[in-house]
Design a protein that fits this description.
With about 200 residues, the protein is mainly α. Among the domains are: about 1-30 and about 65-80; about 120-195. The protein is about 75% helix and about 0% strand. The chain has helices at about 1-35, 55-80, 85-120, 125-155, 165-195.
Length: about 200
């Protein structure tokens, strides 16, 4: 048991290190994508601006909190989950990774491309509200659909899933859509009141 706990703790540290490294690599890749594609013929040498200390502190705090949460989760798993269930736990974690990379990431990429191409006339705050609505609705679906499926299969204990989750999910999605559309309408009204000369500035990638 001690060997398994030590292995789990080492695995958690390695996962945290991998998250930090991948975050740094993705940040550098995003910076390269946002850099201008064409450079002037003669560009004066400019010194790179020093990173904002407040941003560095905020990143350090967020990274520390994430690492603490990860280690707490690993510790709880090692003390709550039986060693015989570690294999199924790894299968479940692997399934979550496959679900994210094979389903969620492509869907979110298509939604992002659709918002930039299908809503070119909307100002940036309205597009941000639409994205936020999709994000909240998607999170609700991800959280509630497994409960609906488990309720459909029939739990062994009828008091485990007693609610009408499908109806509640539908009501929540309607509320999210109503709030999103209301916010978009308010933004459009303010944009029209400010004058037609201000066109929405949004870079389509």
């Amino acid at each position: 048991m001690k060997v398994l706990r030590s292995f789990g703790l080492a695995w958690g540290l390695a996962a945290a290190l991998g998250v930090l490294v991948s975050r740094t690599a993705l940040t550098r890749y995003a910076d390269r994508l946002q850099a201008p594609t064409r450079m002037p013929a003669v560009a004066p040498p400019t010194a790179e601006p020093a990173p904002d200390p407040a941003v560095r502190r905020a990143r350090a705090v967020v990274g520390g909190v994430g690492l603490l949460v990860l280690l707490t989760g690993v510790w709880k798993v090692l003390h709550v989950v039986q060693p015989a269930s570690y294999v199924w736990l790894l299968v479940w974690l692997g399934g979550a990774v496959v679900l994210h990379d094979a389903v969620l990431a492509p869907v979110l990429t298509l939604l992002r491309a659709g918002t930039h191409r299908g809503l070119p006339a909307l100002p940036e705050p309205a597009v941000a509200l639409v994205k936020a609505g999709f994000l909240v609705g998607g999170l609700l679906v991800l959280v509630v659909v497994p409960e609906i499926w488990a309720q459909h299969l029939g739990p062994l204990n009828p008091t485990v899933l007693p609610g009408s989750y499908a109806r509640r999910l539908l009501v929540a999605l309607v509320v999210v859509a109503a709030v999103t559309l209301t916010g978009v309408a308010v933004v459009l009204r303010r944009s029209r009141a400010s004058g037609p000369g201000e066109a929405p500035s949004r870079s389509v990638r």
